[in-house]
Amino acid sequence: MSENIIELKNIKKVFDDTVVVEDFNLTVKKGEFVTFLGPSGCGKTTTLRMIAGFDLPTEGQILLNGEDISQLPPNKRPINTVFQRYALFPHLNVYDNIAFGLNLKHLPEHEIREKVRNVLEVVDLEGFEERRISTLSGGQQQRIAIARAIVNEPDILLLDEPLGALDLKMRKEMQLELKAMHDQLGITFIYVTHDQEEALTMSDKVVVMSDGMIQQTGTPEEIYNEPKNAFVADFIGESNIFEGRMAASMTVKFLGFPFPCVDNVPRDTRVDVVVRPEDVLITTPEKGQITGVVDSSVFKGMYYEITALLEGDNEVVIQSTRSARVGDRIGMCIEPDGIHVMPAGVLVNVFDGEITKDGRVAFAGGNYECDLTQLYEGSRAGEDASVITAEGEEISLAGMPVTVEIPVRAVSMSDEEREYRASGNIISFIYKGNHYNYTVRTASEEDFVLDEDYLWNEGDHVSLMIPSEEIVLKRKQVKP
Amino acid sequence: MRTIRFSRKQLCIPYALFLFCFVVLPLAVIVYYAFTDGSGHFTLANLISFFTNGNTIGTLCYSIVTAAAVTAVCLVIAYPTAYVLARSGLKRGPVLLMLFILPMWINFTLRITALKEILTVIEGNLSLHPFLNTVIAMTYDFLPFMILPLYTTLLELDESLLEAARDLGAGEAEVFLRVTLPLSMPGVVSGITMTFLPAMTNYVILDMMYNSTYIMGSLIGSYFNIYDWNNGSMISLILFGLICLVSWVTGRGGANDAENRGAIL
């Protein structure tokens, strides 16, 4: 039987004017193992804390078995948490740590003793009752933290990056043990991690998050095989991401060649195409759909990672069990079901702006020169911020609200601060075969999307250059 | 230019010299006087007279009661204060803490004189409430020494431990009793040590308050004033032993706790 145990509806969380989580909708079935996956700062821990009750949602509801618990304090919720750094009580020994929740429920002493012994068996630490916390290793503390939570038999167990502090080998082992524990206990697990492999290994359902929003929810297979957008494809596993255009409803043109695909998208739609490296098959140049020259070949144990350079400087990453010689010309084939077509990312940046007194347009913290005559058809430029219309009337535009549109390809970055230029930090980027697609966020939380050939780092502070002829202005429709 | 290098041993010499001149030597002198009589012969008479003289024993008891009262009052005032300063997320917490510490920067004599004047205005005749006045004056003087260690331990208290307690079903009162209080014990212990021991011996405050009562400090002072160095030394030595004992007992309680490090002392 599968009933919903917890439901999050339109959750929104704002900290000091910054939106941390937005538009979060999720239902979790009883006994499921759900993982929130995303880079740091994507809002996954905040969401978990709202379920636990440490943070209250600004908007929205959290339903546990159909009842709204979003405003309940943590001690009134039948939910327990395994903390990132364990948070074991240093003044209590192992027994008292585990018995903490049971003592608060005033259970009889012999029952507590029995439960603690059983749970220590579950986590494989029999006989550790009298040990002090400071004498335990990281892995042992981890197990005690889990024991302390599950001994209360919660409806839901929350785990906040519980394996983050362990070394690789220990982490792998604990992943399997946690999975086994989940199967054995039948408790619903909600797990937070930034490690995609961990998420794919352990979960029944993965929720991929970025920038406070759910990007995709699905089984590990769905997330890996059918990523919904370029972010998910890039975050989960290795991938080649290209910009393309639908040549026909079941044919997508990218890398200069039409490929048959399985996605039915209207002709001429601009799309992002994702191809997993293992789905690119190497063949002879004659047989290949596309050809290229091997640029590098690196042995990775199970496979060779081969990079091929195509004409028009696109790069394709291939995983193959056979090596290829650097400099050789090879052909490449991609099966239709190896091609994942998804809606293109942002193509045009749109902002709300205002015409300044000196005839520039102000938006996103910057002041840019622009062509004001486009606001009135047939007009020519007047003095300062005014235009002379076709009828010869002079209109002053200072203070006029406008919509500003800038194509993604028109924006470029510089590490030099200049007066008038908008500036911000790179918050993410995706490699698209021959260029990088960057998102830059300004101090006022407005995002610029732009393409650049060169690699910058996440977090770099950059100023944005926009040629005046690329700035499209539209008069705002003033609603009566 | 030749660089001069000192070995670790050489660097220790000034410190060792200081220790010897100002700690070991004076202690040895006290021990010598404590166990000799006026003419320099070995005797246990000073020791015996301490325990047989009702006056000294009475003073000892009175000192302990006074110090205990001062410590208790300090603790009752300091704990909530330190708790609010450290944990309520006040934006100006450190500034407020400074306000509590600030009186320490004002000359001690001036502070006590001012307090004496205020109390005189309120009570009329100070000699009517000697015990009360002692407790008020000492509390005023020692309060920062109680607040500081408490503030430090409470400030370093890991928020996730409190969250863990709430998560396991503890209400706010239980969180305090089961987690906050036990984890702030090191601060309580060092606060007590820093208040209780000085309160037993600081007779200057009593003197300045025109106080006729005696605490251990006053007793020692009076012996030395009449040049009875032998009895004065013996009382000092006994007090020293008592302090060692108290430090050992309070220090032992949390000797194994790593979280002790947060506390001063």
Question: How would you characterize the overall build of this protein?
Answer:
The complex is a heterodimer of chains A (480) and B (265). Chain A folds into 3 domains: 4-225, Rossmann fold (3-Layer(aba) Sandwich); 231-343, OB fold (Dihydrolipoamide Acetyltransferase, E2P) (Beta Barrel), CATH 2.40.50.140; 348-475, OB fold (Dihydrolipoamide Acetyltransferase, E2P) (Beta Barrel). Chain A has 8 helices and 33 strands. In chain A, helix 2 crosses helix 3 (109-122) and helix 3 (109-122) crosses helix 4. Chain A is globular. Chain B has helices spanning 8-34, 45-52, 54-87, 93-101, 108-123, 130-155, 159-167, 172-183, 185-201, 203-208, 216-225, 229-253. In chain B, helix 2 packs across helix 12 and helix 9 runs antiparallel to helix 12. Chain B starts with 7 loop residues before the first helix and ends in a 12-residue tail after the last helix. Classes of the chains: A alpha+beta (480), B mainly alpha (265). At the A-B interface, strand 6 and helix 2 of A face helix 7 and helix 8 of B.
Largest sheet of chain A: 6 strands, mixed
- Counting structural domains of chain A, the number is 3
CATH topology of the largest domain in chain A: Rossmann fold
Query: What is the strand arrangement across the widest sheet of chain A?
Result: 6-7-8-3-9-10
Q: In sequence order, what are the helices and strands of chain B, one letter per element?
A: HHHHHHHHHHHH
Beta-strand content of chain A: 35-45%
Alpha carbon gap, first and last residue of chain B: 43 Å
Judged by helices, strands and strand pairing, the structural class of chain B is: mainly alpha
The whole-number mean of residue pLDDT values of chain A reads 90
- Number of helical regions of chain A: 8
Structural class of chain A: alpha+beta
